[in-house]
């Protein structure tokens, strides 16, 4: 055999042996992975994910059914309205109870206790029973799975199982915190509404990490004592988690939001990396968590780049064009921001993040604001912003004229899922202060659908509690334009309640100063008392004209607007709107965005009006949606 043939055969045999050893290594990895997976399945933590998947599937099916139902009711109601065959409200038409109404009455009773009533503040925040149910159920199931794992080893040693529970929370916690959230897309539940579950899973992680730590201390640390990498990384992970927990209490979130945000991300990274190094075998919880996080950041960045045409930003002239915005001081403490970004499309109730590096203390801090209008051919998006104490205050303070176009704004969005309203017979939109942004976008959307003959809504009633009548000027241009184009078969009613009271009229009132209180204004009594509201039109017509003149409303808009002194009495409003409602669509829909007192008042009102006995008598069920400016 020649020497070249010998070397070829040697090379071939070495290649074969390399392939064989690579195959063996791959097989071993697969085997280890399989063993790890099986071991983990034995501990039961994969069941947590089966349960979550099952719940998401159930909620997804429910969401799909509700989409189909609302689309059907919207078309049915619109057709009846166009044909002039709308049915009179069953509440007015019938007098007696009917067995056919029993399921609806039971549904209303269930929904009232589950979703409308809130538990007292002293228990924990103002949560609904629904939120409590899911918080407790989630915590109980996950801890039970951990205990089951301890029990299955017949040792009742909770140390490692609790560590596993903590690991298994990671993807869920991060997934629920992301703005670009798959769970929200599948279930229609907005990411900010999921925030309570993010907190619940976070608390479970803190609790189980503590149990894991103390159980190991009690057992004695053995070979993993001080100096060992498992010990060091475990301590770092636990400290990171504890710091994350301590810096996320509500007072800190409220007072130092940017600090909270930076600390939260930094400590989360500290925890995740240290936990991975602590026990790399559980990397299959860590990688998905980092992947979800990375994807969220990537999608957010991509949105920001596309909406603001970031590839043109290096060119000064194009930058000015694509980051331009108009800021108008419409009140000493309120600005209206208009940006022209034709590519940004959204649905009513959604919000977007605004970055203004020239104004912000931390150059690229982002703040969420509700999109107050609806997308149209102009490509304009409008935000109405009340100055708080941080970025928003700096924005107001930076203005030297009432209107400026010198500030650059970068927009990212839209975010949040919306509450559909066009399938209701009557819609009542209740707003307090800048909560008008949420209500206005729905109002404009319903008017547009009315014009297109594409809504079941016969009456849309905007109820706005605002400090001064002249504040109507914030929204007058949009209402004037919408009504000028017409609202088809949909009747529009605007009720403005002039409260002249302090900062608690705002959806994000906590921590707001009262500096801008009208010095001549009077504090009105809390909502709910009949005497708190007096119709200005009836009492003092001059006043009404004065308000109309100051508000900038067109004659068509002024004709449908009534001004009142005092706060709105939501229960009265609902009762009278319900009595006048037709019954082709889904009954009466109520959406509220405002301060806590207004939300509570509206909840109470819906609870009372939407009673099971009334529904048994034939009254159509009410549907309530509450929106807040925070999480
Ligand atoms: C979904 C959503 C929609 C909103 N829509 C509007 C709107 O249409 N009009 C309006 O005036 N306000 C709106 N807000 C509230 C607005 O985002 C805050 O008032 C604003 O970010 C306060 O900035 P600041 O630095 O001046 O706040 P600070 O004075 O520092 O804090 C005031 C309050 O705002 C909260 N906050 C501060 N920064 C943020 C942030 N980046 N993200 C979330 N909350 C923050 C704080 O926790 C605190 O409770 C909305 C908030 C959310 C969550």
UniProtKB/TrEMBL annotation:
Residue ranges occupied by any FAD-binding FR-type domain in the UniProt entry: 308-421
Recorded catalytic activity of this chain's protein: 2 a Fe(II)-siderophore + NADP(+) + H(+) = 2 a Fe(III)-siderophore + NADPH
InterPro entries: FAD-bd_8 (IPR013112), FAD-bd_FR_type (IPR017927), Fe3_Rdtase_TM_dom (IPR013130), Fe_red_NAD-bd_6 (IPR013121), Ferric/Cupric_Reductase (IPR051410), FNR_nucleotide-bd (IPR039261), Riboflavin_synthase-like_b-brl (IPR017938)
Superkingdom as given in the UniProt entry: Eukaryota
Residue span of region Disordered: 503-544
Transmembrane segments: 49-68, 132-150, 162-179, 200-217, 229-247, 259-279
EC number: 1.16.1.9
Compartment list: Cell membrane
Class of enzymatic activity (EC top level): oxidoreductase
Record key words, sorted: Cell membrane, Electron transport, Glycoprotein, Ion transport, Membrane, Oxidoreductase, Transmembrane, Transmembrane helix, Transport
Keyword match Membrane: yes
Topology in the lipid bilayer: Multi-pass membrane protein
Ranges of compositional bias, category Acidic residues: 507-517
Polar residues bias (residue ranges): 526-535
Keyword Plastid appears in the UniProt entry: no
Pfam family, one: FAD_binding_8
Entry similarity comment: Belongs to the ferric reductase (FRE) family.
Name used for this protein in its record: ferric-chelate reductase (NADPH)
Organism per entry: Vanrija albida
Gene name of the encoded protein: FRP1_3
């Amino acid at each position: 055999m020649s020497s070249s043939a010998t070397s070829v055969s040697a090379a071939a045999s070495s290649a074969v042996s390399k392939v064989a050893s690579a195959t063996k290594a791959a097989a071993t990895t697969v085997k280890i992975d399989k063993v790890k997976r099986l071991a983990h399945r034995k501990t039961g933590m994969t069941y947590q994910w089966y349960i979550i998947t099952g719940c998401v599937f159930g909620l997804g099916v429910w969401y799909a059914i509700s989409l189909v139902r609302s689309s059907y009711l919207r078309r049915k109601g619109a057709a009846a309205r166009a044909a002039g065959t709308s049915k009179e409200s069953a509440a007015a038409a019938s007098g007696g109870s009917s067995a056919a109404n029993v399921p609806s009455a039971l549904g209303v009773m269930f929904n009232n206790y589950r979703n409308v009533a809130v538990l007292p503040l002293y228990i924990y925040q103002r949560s609904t029973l629904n939120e409590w149910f899911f918080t407790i159920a989630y915590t109980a199931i996950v801890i039970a799975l951990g205990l089951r794992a301890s029990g299955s080893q017949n040792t009742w040693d909770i140390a490692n199982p609790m560590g596993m529970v903590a690991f298994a929370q990671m993807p869920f916690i991060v997934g629920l915190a992301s703005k670009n959230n798959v769970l929200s897309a599948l279930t229609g539940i907005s990411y900010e509404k999921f925030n309570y579950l993010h907190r619940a899973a976070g608390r479970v992680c803190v609790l189980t990490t503590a149990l894991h730590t103390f159980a190991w201390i009690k057992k004695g640390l053995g070979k993993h004592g001080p100096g060992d990498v498992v010990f060091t990384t475990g301590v770092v992970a636990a400290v990171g988690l504890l710091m994350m927990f301590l810096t996320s209490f509500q007072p800190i979130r409220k007072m130092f939001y940017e600090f909270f945000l930076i600390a939260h991300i930094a400590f989360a990274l500290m925890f995740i990396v240290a936990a991975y190094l602590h026990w790399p075998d559980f990397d299959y919880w860590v990688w998905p968590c980092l992947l979800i996080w990375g994807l969220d950041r990537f999608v957010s960045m991509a949105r920001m780049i596309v909406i603001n045409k970031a590839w043109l930003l290096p060119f000064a002239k194009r930058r000015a064009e694509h980051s331009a915005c108009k800021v108008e001081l419409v009140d000493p403490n309120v600005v209206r921001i208009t940006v022209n970004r034709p590519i940004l499309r959204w649905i009513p109730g959604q919000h977007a993040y605004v970055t203004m590096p020239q104004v912000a203390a931390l150059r690229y801090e982002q703040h969420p604001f509700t999109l107050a209008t609806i997308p149209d051919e102009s490509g304009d998006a409008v935000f109405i912003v009340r100055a708080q104490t941080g970025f928003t205050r700096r924005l107001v303070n930076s203005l030297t004229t009432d209107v400026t176009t010198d500030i650059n704004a970068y927009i990212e969005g839209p975010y949040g899922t919306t509450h559909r309203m066009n399938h209701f017979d009557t819609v009542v939109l209740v707003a307090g202060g800048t909560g008008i942004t949420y209500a206005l976008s729905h109002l404009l959307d319903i008017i547009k659908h009315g014009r297109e003959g594409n809504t079941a809504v016969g009456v849309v009633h905007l109820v706005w509690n605002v400090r001064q009548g002249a504040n109507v000027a914030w929204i007058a241009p949009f209402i004037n334009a919408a009504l000028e184009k017409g609202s088809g078969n949909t009747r529009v009613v605007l009720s403005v309640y002039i409260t002249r009271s302090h900062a608690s009229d705002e959806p994000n009132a906590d921590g707001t100063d009262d500096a801008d209180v009208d010095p001549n204004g009077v504090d009105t009594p809390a909502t709910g008392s009949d005497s708190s509201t007096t119709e200005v039109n009836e009492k003092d017509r001059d006043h009404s004209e004065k308000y109309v003149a100051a508000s900038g409303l067109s004659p068509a808009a002024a004709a449908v607007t009534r001004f009142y002194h005092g706060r709105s009495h939501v229960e009265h409003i609902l009762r009278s709107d319900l009595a006048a409602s037709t019954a082709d669509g889904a009954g009466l829909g109520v959406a509220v965005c405002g301060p806590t007192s207004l939300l509570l008042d509206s909840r109470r009102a819906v609870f009372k009006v939407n009673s099971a006995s009334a529904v048994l008598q034939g009254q159509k069920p009410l549907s309530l949606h509450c929106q807040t400016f925070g999480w």
